[in-house]
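@channel sequence for tomorrow's demo:
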Amino acid sequence: MPDQRHMKKKPSKKVHKPAKKPAPLPRARTYALVLSGGAALGAYQAGAIRAFFEAGLDVRCVAGSSIGALNGYLTATRNVDTMVKFWQEIDQKRLITIQSFTKLFFSASPSLLTDQLQRKLVEEHVRLADLVNAPCEYICAAISLNTGKLHYFSGSDAKNDTELRQFILASAAVPGVFPPVQIGHELYMDGGLIRNTPIEAVESKKVDAVIAISMEPETYPKDPLVNTAQIALRTLSIFFRSQADDAIQRATNSRRRKAKKLFLLRPKMPLEMQQYEFDQKKIVRLLDQGYHEAQLFIRHNRLR
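structure tokens (generated this afternoon):
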């Protein structure tokens, strides 16, 4: 027998396995934002929007009513810093207070205020070119006083700066407070009366999820309501809260809905300020409250 110790071993052939292809990176989720009306309570909304953008949420479409129309335009054009600054400085502007409503009963004017201040604000910040260049669609809701029907104005339908500004002013024309806005042959006013949380405007958009922001609370405190003003304000809040709930329910059952998920961000308890209070210190606190509650909302729902 040959000596096994001196026999050369044949080199073993190495089997080269094909390299595994790297797993594809998960696609970033896309979102549509729906912004409710709420006058001064829009500060809470602005704080929440700031948190969404700092977290890097990819917002592809924004729809809003009333103050949500203005916040919505600044969101769609990525002017979030401008929006926050506006709210931080709003006490320097001559805006309506809740006591001013008494003037409605002693005036022959069709509205409590002119829309001169709103027009100045919109003229300073609203540019069609900014919207055309933005990676986001913009929609706002208004009601025709001629037909009583709701209309959704899309930023892409505006032919110039003036027309786009009219869309926003119409959506924010609170009845009795600001005059209605003429567009074409019709007069339009605040869309929040019919669709304060206009989710249906984004139902057919190809996004992964819809996030609606309402300023009305999940629950109300048990403290008794002691006067007519408190009862009236609570009634208004319940009306707008039920609108948000109904909008979510309709969207859940809608066959037009493309988004897989619907989310609703709202405060747990009533915000400390009323809709037409415009107290600067409270507005700053609302900005912070909206910002921090949105951060928790993002983590809880794993939006990132």
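heads up for whoever presents: The first strand starts at residue 30 and ends at 35.
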